[in-house]
Structures are given as structure tokens and as C-alpha cells.
Specification:
8 helices; 7-stranded antiparallel beta sheet; single chain; elongated; alpha+beta; 20% strand; Jelly Rolls
């Protein structure tokens, strides 16, 4: 029995020596270990640690490794926290960069959301598309003038046409340059607002010169035989009536309209006075029906006109009880009361065709702009009878013109590329 115990002790001692030798090899073999005998009653492990210096080194190394592992664990935890924080910030940024939901129903929008060259939701590419379409419209007018000049042998018209064609070519180069700037992300885009203003100014100048050239076409036509065309939904095409409206306790507004714009044809006209931008407005905006506003009070009108055909519409109103009536193509379609009762239409305002004013003479919003054709716009300071309105809609010889505002080319100033064309309502109906 004693012999077996001694043999086990020697085997354990030999195993300890082998383990220590292996440790010495791991550390580059710079140390050596010697197996020695130990007293009978002494613990082998204790004796090994006591008599072997490398054992202390191993213990120290293990402690250092343990400390290193703890430090790395702490570092990993910190990095995980940083990753979570960055992921959260990224998610917030992505949610803010996504397009917002459509603005809920309603007529007016905050003035701070205004765009300078089109729909508030549109980017530079859409703006450039609008400019290109405007240029195409001007080109079409030049082609018409070219045909006119050929038929009339007008040398002056030809020279002006060539000059305007050169101007349009320059504008097309500017549009192309802006496209390239957008694609390449050039720093020059910081001056986009200034450049956009120059382009708008050039377009207005081009329109004026083309209008002067078109005078040769209208020398033989009456001044009321014309239409205004607003081909694009922008916030810079409009016509301004040169004189203000008087104070009115009743009124009738009539006009010819043609549009296929959707959703909503926009704002055929708006009249603003100091302190009230919505003194008198006709608007069809978004998915809402057409509305007449007086002193910012609203009545919904039963008009359906965005089918691309000419329609004659009239709205009558009296301040007493705010009674109103709506006529389309000579037929009464609706009526009501309590529309701004006992509120007279105020004088000293500004009448704009094609845009809705959020402030006196400005604050135009492209989403509320009129798109289409407008003609024979008249205003009376009284309520027309059913027969008088029918005569207007059927081009009767008994039809009257507005005593407050009558449709005449000399009564309007046009801006932003809106154009004038010859128009005769009776001929369009036949």
C-alpha cells in the first residue's frame, strides 16, 4: 500500500515538471525547470510553486491577461453603446429626410412654405422642367410670328424674331448649365436664387418683346377679342389689372374659362386689399370644389369645368344677407346666403388674374395658380339678371360689358410668360 502511494507521488511530481516545462517553452524557452524530490508529507503543488520561480511569472501573466480581458470587455461595451446611439441618430435623420404627408385639406398655406419657382414640393429638376416648358411656349409664339411675318413680308418682324430666337437659345444654355450644376453638385448652386431671379427677369423681358411683336397681329382686331393663357402651374405667371375696384355692395363676376388641370384648376382671379388678402377670390385648389371667397368667408360653387372645354361662369352676390348665385354656361347651378353678409367689397385693392394672393400683390403659391385659358373677364357693381347672364353665355348681341371692369388688352399688365392670343367666344362655340 505504501509503495502504491509513493508511485502516485512520483507520477504527480513528473506531471508537474512536464507542465512547467511546457510553460517555459511558451515564454521562449528562456528559463529551465528542475524536478526535485519533496518531503513525504508536503503538498506537491505548494512545493512546486515554492521552489520554481517560473511559477510566479505564470501567475503574474495570468493576472495580467485577466485584467486585459476585463479592459477589452469594457471597451466593447462602450463601443456597443456608441453604435446604438449612432444608429438612433441615423434613424432620426432618415425619418426627417423622407417626404412628408400631403398637407391636409384646406385652402391657405403658411407663407413660410412658399416656393420661388413652382410647386413647394418640387425640387430643382422640376423647376428646370418648368423653365423648359416656358421656353417651348415662347418658341411656339415665335413660330406663329414667323408665319405672320412671311405672310406680311415684314422685315422688322423678321429681325426681331431672329433677336428673340437668339435670346431663347441663350436661356436654353442657362437651363442646360443648371442641369449640369445639379448633376455635378457644383458650389455655384448656392447662388441658385439669384440666378433664378435673373432667368425670371429674362423671361418677363422676352414676353414683353414678343408681345410688342404681336401687336402687328392685333392691329386689325378689337381690343377685347383676346384670351390669356397660363400654360404652367407656377408662381410667376400672372396678369395685373391696372386699376383698383371701387367699394361695392353687390357684384357680378363673369368670364370664359378653359382648363383640364388636375387636381383643381387653381385661381382664375384674386382681389386683395390692405389688411385682407382674401377680399374677393375665385379658387379651385387641391381636391376641393371651386369656391368664392368674400372677406375670407367661403361658399362652395357647383362648377365642373376642368374638361378642357370652354365654359362661361358667372357669380352674383349682394351684401344684404350675403345672397349669392352661381351660373355655368348660362344655367343657374346653385345659390346660397350668409356669404359675408353686410360687408361691402373694399376699394383700393389689387386685382390679379391667375394667382392667389397671400399678401397684397404677392405671396403667390404655385399649387394655387391657375392653369388654362381665361377670356372675357367682366365685373359689375350690381346683380345681373338671369336673362343678362344667359345673353353673355350665348354671345347675344344684347350682352353687356362690365361697368367696373371690362375686358380690354390695355387694362392689363402681363408677367412671367403668360401670353395673349386672339379669342372670339362665339366662334369657339360654333
Amino acid at each position: 500500500m505504501q509503495a502504491a502511494k509513493n508511485a502516485l507521488r512520483w507520477r504527480l511530481l513528473l506531471l508537474s515538471c512536464l507542465l512547467l516545462e511546457s510553460s517555459s517553452q511558451d515564454f521562449g524557452g528562456q528559463t529551465q525547470f528542475i524536478c526535485t524530490s519533496v518531503p513525504k508529507n508536503m503538498d506537491i503543488c505548494a512545493a512546486t510553486l515554492q521552489n520554481s520561480v517560473p511559477g510566479d511569472d505564470v501567475k503574474t501573466t495570468v493576472m495580467q491577461l485577466r485584467e486585459t480581458v476585463l479592459q477589452q470587455k469594457e471597451t466593447i461595451m462602450n463601443q456597443k453603446e456608441t453604435i446604438r446611439e449612432l444608429t438612433s441618430k441615423l434613424a432620426r435623420c432618415e425619418s426627417q429626410s423622407e417626404p412628408g404627408d400631403a398637407r391636409p385639406g384646406g385652402r391657405r398655406k403658411d407663407a413660410g412654405s412658399k416656393n420661388t419657382m413652382g410647386d413647394v414640393s418640387r425640387g430643382p429638376a422640376d423647376t428646370l422642367t418648368q423653365l423648359s416648358q416656358t421656353l417651348q411656349s415662347l418658341k411656339q409664339r415665335l413660330e406663329n410670328l414667323e408665319q405672320f411675318s412671311r405672310s406680311n413680308n415684314s422685315v422688322q418682324a423678321n429681325s426681331l424674331k431672329d433677336l428673340l430666337q437668339s435670346k431663347i437659345d441663350d436661356l436654353e444654355k442657362q437651363v442646360l448649365s443648371r442641369v449640369n450644376s445639379i448633376e455635378e453638385g457644383k458650389p455655384g448652386l448656392r447662388n441658385e436664387t439669384e440666378q433664378r431671379g435673373r432667368v425670371e427677369s429674362t423671361l418677363t423681358s422676352l414676353h414683353q418683346r414678343i408681345t410688342d411683336l404681336e401687336k402687328g397681329q392685333r392691329e386689325n382686331r378689337p381690343l377685347d377679342k383676346f384670351q390669356l393663357t397660363f400654360p404652367l402651374r407656377t408662381n410667376y405667371m400672372y396678369a395685373k389689372v391696372k386699376k383698383s375696384l371701387p367699394e361695392m355692395y353687390a357684384l357680378t363676376v363673369c368670364m370664359w374659362l378653359k382648363s383640364n388641370a388636375s387636381p383643381g384648376v387653381g385661381t382664375p382671379f384674386s382681389y386683395a386689399v390692405p389688411g385682407q388678402a382674401n377680399e374677393l377670390v375665385l379658387i379651385e385648389w387641391g381636391n376641393n370644389p371651386m369656391e368664392i371667397l368674400i372677406n375670407d368667408k367661403v361658399a362652395k360653387l357647383p362648377f365642373l369645368i376642368n374638361d378642357g372645354k370652354w365654359h362661361h361662369i358667372c357669380v352674383t352676390w349682394t351684401t344684404r344677407d350675403g345672397v349669392w348665385e352661381a351660373f355655368q354656361d348660362g344655367v343657374k347651378r346653385g345659390s346660397g346666403e350668409n356669404l359675408a353678409p353686410y360687408h361691402p367689397i373694399k376699394p383700393q385693392g389689387l386685382l390679379i388674374l391667375g394667382q392667389e394672393q397671400d399678401m397684397l400683390g404677392g405671396g403667390f403659391d404655385a399649387t394655387q395658380a391657375f392653369v388654362g385659358d381665361l377670356a372675357n373677364f367682366h365685373i359689375w357693381d350690381r346683380k345681373l339678371s338671369v336673362g343678362e347672364i344667359y345673353n353673355l353665355a350665348t354671345c347675344s348681341s344684347k350682352a353687356q360689358v362690365g361697368n367696373v371692369f371690362a375686358w380690354m388688352e390695355t387694362s392689363l399688365d402681363i408677367y412671367g410668360g403668360a401670353s395673349k392670343w386672339t379669342f372670339e367666344a362665339c366662334r369657339q362655340l360654333n
